[in-house]
Each structure stands twice: as C-alpha cells, then as structure tokens.
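Quick check before the chapter quiz. The format below is the same one you will see on the exam, so make sure you can read both the input and the output lines.
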Amino acid sequence: MTGPSGDQLIRVDMTEHTVSIEPYPDEWQLLGGRALSARILLEECDPKCDPLGPNNLLVLAPGVLAGTAAPTSGRLSVGGKSPLTGGIKEANVGGNPGQDLMKLGYRGIVVKGQPADPESRHALEVTADGARLVPADEHKSKWNYALIEDLAKSYSKTASFISVGPAGEMQLTGASVACTDDEQERRPARHAGRGGLGAVMGSKGLKYVSVDAEKRPARKPAKKEFLALGKKYTKTYIAGPGEELFPKWGTSAIVEEANQLYTFPYQNRVEGRSPDVHTLDGMRIVESFDERGGGMHNCMTGCIVRCSNIVHDAEGNYKTSALEFETLTLLGSNCGIASWEDVADLDRLCDEIGIDTIETGAALAVYMDSGGLEFGDAEGAKRVLREIAEGTELGRAIGDGALAIGRKRKHHRIPTLKGQAIPAWDPRPLKAAGVTYCTSPMGADHTAGLIVEPGQPYEEAVRASQESQIVNAVVDSSGFCQFLMTNLDEVRDFYSHFYGEEVGREQIADLGWQCLEDEWEFNRRAGFGPDDDLMPDCMKQDPIGPTKLVWDLDPDLVSQIYKRFDARDELFELRPG
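Here is the expected output.
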C-alpha cells in the first residue's frame, strides 16, 4: 500500500546537533501514532538503555488520519522508553501539533542523543521548508503558559507547539509533554501525561517543538467517498452519542456514576466512594459557565466531540482547561480534597510545571497517607506542587511519582503497577480494567483498554481486556480520539477510502495485535517478566464497598491474555472506553 507522495520522517540527533529528513517507508503506510512509535522503538532503541540517556529515543508520531478531513482525527502519540516504568510507553495527546505535522507531510519525528552541554536548551522548528534546531537557552526553566505566551510573540499565528515545563527539564519521572490546543488561544493544556515522557524530552535538551503548517489544506484522500464518509459519521455522531451526558459535558460529568460503582477512590484508595462527591462532581463546573463564563470547546481543529471544558475562576478569568474525571479523582477525592475549585488550581499547576495529574495525585495521596500532609489539605498540596518547580528534595520526590515518594517514606500502601500509578478506574470492582493494568505494555493505564463493567465472570474479563487492548491500539494509531468511539470497522472504512485500497477486517485487527506484540517484545527484551504483571498488595488486601471487593484474579488466568483468542464479531462492535 502506498500513501500520499512526499510523506517524510524527520530525524534529529541532539549529540551531533543535526536534522535530516528521509522518505517515509511504503511498508509503514498503515502505521501511525502508537503503532509507528512501537515499531521504531523495537527496531531502533536498545530496550536495556538508560531511559534518560542518549540511547533512548523520543518519538512524536501523528496518527494515520491526522491532517485529513476525518472528524477528531489529529491526535499525536509521544513515545519512548519510560523512565517511570522502565518499559515502552506511548502517551496520546490532543491539540493541533499532530494535525499540523501531517498537513506538512511529516509522519513523525525521531529524536536521539543528548547535547554535550546538559544545561543547554534547544528547540526544533518545523515548517514546509524543512526542520532545524535553534538555541532556546532564554526559555530555560519557564513554566508552560509563560513559555507559550513568549513564543507567540515571535512565531506565526498559525504555529502550534509541543513543550516541556520545569519538571521535564529536571528529568522528573512524572513529567508530561504539553501540546497547544486550538489555533485561537494556543494554550499548553493538552498533555501526554503518562509514563514520564516529558523527562525523556527534557533529557534531550529539547525545550519545545514549533510546527507551522501555515494555511495548508487537509491531506487529500485517494477516493472522494472519504469526504462523504466523514460527513456521514459526523452527522450520526452529533445526533446520537454527542447528545449523551459524557460527550456533551466531558469526562468530569461521570463523577457520580463512578462513585456509585465504587471507583471514585478516596484517601489513597482505602475507600471506593468519596463523601465529597457532590462538591467534586464535574456538573458543578458546568453550572459555573452561566455566571463565570467558560464552556466546552474542541482541543484541536476538526474535533466534533468538544469534551474539553474551559474553567474560569470566580472573577471570570481563565484558570485551566480540560479539568477531567481522572484529575478530579486523583488530585481531588484520592487526596481527600473536597472542592473542584481547589482541584482546578492543582490542575493548572500541573500543566504549568509539566507533570501528569494522575501520577501526581497518586504521589500526593501516598505522601498524605504516610503522614506528610493531612488528607484534604489543598493549600499544602499546592505548596508541594510549587516545590516541584523549585527542585526541592520533597518536590523532586513527588515529581518522580507515587512509587518514588512511597519508597522514600517507606510506606506500605503504594498503588502502582510497573512503577506507574493506578488510574481512577479501580481494578477491584472493574476486573477487566485490572487485567489491562496488569498486562498492558504501558503499565497501569486506563487508555490502554478500559472496560467499565462490574461483575464480569473472571474468564470473560480477561477476554474483554484483550479485545479492548486491540481496539485501543488501533484507535491510538489512527489519530482518532478514543472519545469519538469509533470501532474497527469504521477505522478500516476510513483507511480504505483514504488510501484507495481495501483494508480488511482481519488486517485491521492484526494491526492492533501486532502493535501489542511489538510493545510486549520490547518489554521482554528490557527484562520484564511475570512478576511485573502482579497487582500490588494493597489492591489485594484493602477491601472496598459493602461486598468487600479486592483484587483476586489468579495470575495464571490473567496471563492467558498473551495468547490471542479467536477473532469474534464482537471485537468489531467494541468501541474504546
């Protein structure tokens, strides 16, 4: 299968301070986003390398359909060997850089090496004329919002940005990679948060990447039916799923439902429900729109989901964007913090400093649970986050994540898997989600394959997890947002019309499975084994809910996921969740 002529790959060597551009391989045309990152890392990166050393790679890979007229299809995968898990990692992010890279014909950016001076800062500028490295020492240690405000003064209004904050520059293993959102405001509010990939970018001395597609049109499909397919899908989505509670008001609107399911963790996960659920419910954010302003918006050009909220303070001033369920849970309920407004402050601090809200919320909760702060101390939590940017001993420990602060405090309750904090969706009531956390190459990551179905038979939970992981791998490789809820048949229809060649059912499912196989193989070479798939003791010993739910799946049953089950039609009906 051949794609649009002129597709290219940008390679950056930070040691030699060189940039080269090469043709994109024809055999990789159906590889984008997560699948492309996995293939490059498996073929070119030593799995045993130091994640923060020169031999690790940073991969920035838009999805296959990014830059096209397909709805909500411009997401970017950030990949590398994770300094948090020690294995392969992909973190998926919205914003406009993925769209812009693909409109310019760049299928990815691969960064290797490190500058001779570890204190130097650099930037990569990408335009229609090519790519070049430029000095960026003047931007050293800047917080993300101040950085983008300064860059906006010297770059075109059409430029989008990928950046790291102070946490990434300090190579803290909870660091995130920020992308600017829609072209109007260009806020650095979209974050590839999980796995500490901001630390990998920081270890390369790379402060930011600018991408200027100017007014380039969308990529042209091989068949005109592609445009009709996009319009039909958009109409169906807006009239159907787009009117439901979650797509209409974003993930923050599902707090009440999660609380009912005992998956709204409280005080370092010792309970599954929070007494403060009503003051943390995202519908309070929705209610604030009339008085304060703000509202729902799309984080990238061409998004029809519009699930991102814009949160204003009591004076009507912008505070933060995309205050989501995971953040309300981990930085709110899990820390015993009762007010969504305090969580909004913490969310803004995380975006500014460039750290994952999930990992940071889990780290703060472990710190509180071990006696470092009182549960519910919102002002103390804000003070600790500011210490991350200051580089204090405590700040660095929190910035390195839940496992780091747990070990430092010698605490017994550290809810992590493969070194990464467990997300809001709790594995005790949601067994299939727990199987994903145990077996995903990504560690405890709900975006790798979330199933929200309590009470499943255990064998069914294992199969459901495998199916969900396949679907999520395909969607993360396509450029589609998971919240668009496309299934495999829909993805392959878009691929077929874009390339002008039929992509079959077996082929699209195989793409998802091969992505997982590449990632699992990377981890095996890195030294991962069965012990890395074990749920932490606190999930087995701390019961929640009236039925005293704990994690109780046999590891031998969980391990069956590594053998592919027979394909079923249900796989093609499953939508990412």
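If your answer matched, good. Residues 331 and 361 are 4 Å apart (CA to CA).
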